[in-house]
Every structure is written in structure tokens, then in C-alpha cells.
Amino acid sequence: MNSNKPRKILVVDDQPINIKLLQRKLEREGFEVLTAYNGRECLEVVAATRPDLILLDVMMPEMDGIETCQLLKQDATTKTIPIIFITAKSSKEGKLEGLNVGAVDYITKPIDLEETLARVKTQLRIQEIYQENIELQKRLGESRRSAAVGAITQGIAHNLNNLLGVVVGYLDLLKNGFDSPDMVKRSVNLMDQAIQRMVSIIRQLSSIATSEKVALTKLLLHSFLQNSISRFNSEYDLNARIELINELPADCHVHANAEVFESIVGRLLINAWEAYDNDSTDEARPIQLSASLAGPPEKQNLIIKVIDQGLGIADEVRDTLFEPFITTKTSVGRGLGLTMARHSIKNLGGDLAIEPNEGPGTTATISYPMNDDERPANVVIVQETSS
Known about the structure:
Shape: elongated
CATH superfamily of the largest domain: Histidine kinase-like ATPase, C-terminal domain
Helix content: 40-55%
Distance between the termini: 63 Å
């Protein structure tokens, strides 16, 4: 804020002598003083000059200070201008009336010029702090966006460098291991896994950046749940112990994208599987997948939960679970998995939350609206049935 530029004070009073007294005092203190003699003039001056503060007399003919203040506070361009009422009313009710319509302070007549000056300076300082806070919030928002971009960039570089290191390492082994078919086969398989992981990261980033519309079809939820479990075990080459609790009607359908939904559930299932100690067998890693409906018929949500009894959420990542590449050895949060899961479900109009259980483990909850009217603009419903 430019401290060399004089602050503008608008004095509004139907008594010229009161205006003259306040104008002289304020100008001696370095303020630029604007004047108006009634509510209409006040609105005109405010529209033309945007003062930093208004000293507004309550008792004026035609349009009094209360009505003038109400009109100023109803206008988005003027509602933040602080207004100090000048009033002859000394009763509590009279003062509360002014404060209730948006005034920040009041001064009673006869006017004490020193007190008025002190109150003006106080309110201008409060307004300055308010503006500084707005600027700070804007800068913080920009910093968060920059930090998020930096975190993604750093995370991508770190992950891809590690994966490329794996590929290069096994290539070196291949160069020297032609006489060992088993080692060649193992090296090729591990290289393939690393390459597929790199491809996956690139696809996930492309998904974040894309603005293409998502096609939804009518999905039979019972089949979807079974397919999600099968796809998860196949994709990650596991035999995970997953208990399915399906509380949905047998013919329950929803408009959704099967590929996106199965991918989201798969990411949550692998997080649940990795939440256990690394030495745990598949049998020692129980995971529960449940589905139910919640809410009144007109605003009903599909609720899908993935519940584990693992090591839970580490304190150091509790507030950053959905940021990219957040990970520890003993917590949920791996690479872009949760970032992508939440991004994908929000892109379809749903949401994802992750909370610690009362006992051991974590619960991830997908909430997805059954009502098509709640879909965002980027989705298109295709009128065909998939089961």
C-alpha cells in the first residue's frame, strides 16, 4: 500500500459547520477530505471516488444515514468501505441500530475532534490489515500452486530416475549374463515392470492435464464390485484376501465409467494391501470392500469403503495424503495413487476421504451421487447398458 498517497475520507452531514470542523481537522492530519450533504450525494461521491472511509451522519433529510449505509453494503464494490456513524443518539438501541446495518463504529454529538481522529486512524489501520491479509492469502494461494507444481515435478524426476536406474542396472546384467537364461528372464521381467510403472506415471499425469469429457454408461454395481477385485488381483499379481460386503439391491445400477471406477478402487485396494507390514503374507492382510446407499432418494449417494487393519496413517503424512508422491514405509500414500484417485472421482462429481479407524487400520470412503442431475459439465451419459 502506497503510504505517500493521502487517504480519502468522505464526510457526510447536512450541517455545513460539522463538515467544516471535521474537514479542517482531517486535512491538517494529511487526509484528503471529500464532502456530501445528504445520502444521495454520498452515493454519487462514493461511486466516483471510492473513499477509504466514510464519516456518515445518521439524521439527514430524505435519505438518512441508515438507509445510505444499507445501500452501500448491498453493493459488492462498496461494501468493504468502513463507515463510522455520527449520531446524536446516545441510547444503546440507537448505537446497535447503526452497527447492525454494517457500520464499524459510531461517534456521538457533540463531536470530539481528537476522539474522531483516533477512531478514523484505528479503522483505517484495520482496513489496511484487512487488505494486507487479502494480498497475503492471494500470495499464499499462488505459492501453494507453485509448491504443488514443484512437488509434482520433483516427484516425477525422482520416481522416473529411480525407475530408469532399475532399467539401466538390469541392462548391464543382461550384457554380462547371456550364459544364464534364468537371470536373463528375471532381468527382463523386472525391467518390464519398471517400464510399465513409468508408462503408468505418464498416463496418470496425462489424465490430470486432460480436459476431455468423460463418458458414463449404465453400470451394474454388483458386477462392477466383482470385476474390481478380479482386476486388482490380476493387475498387481496378488491373491489378496478381500471380504466383499454388498448391501446394494441386486439390480442396482448407476451411470459411471467402469474403467475409471475400477482404477480408483484398485488404487485404494493396493494402498490397503501396502498398509500392512512388509513381511505380512496375503492371508495376514485382510481387506474389506463394502458398498451401500446413503441419503434420501432424491440425493442418494453410492458409498464404497475400503477398510484395512494395517499400520494406519503416519502422523507426518496425515495432512498431506492427497499430495503427489507422499509416502512412508508404514503408511498409506504411494506416488500419484491417491492424488489420481481423488482427482478422478471428483472429476465425476464424487469425493474421496481417508480416515483412521478407531482400532488399527484405515478406511477410504468413496461417495458418488446416484442422481444424474449432480454430474459436472465434463461428463456425458451414453445411453447403453453394461453389466
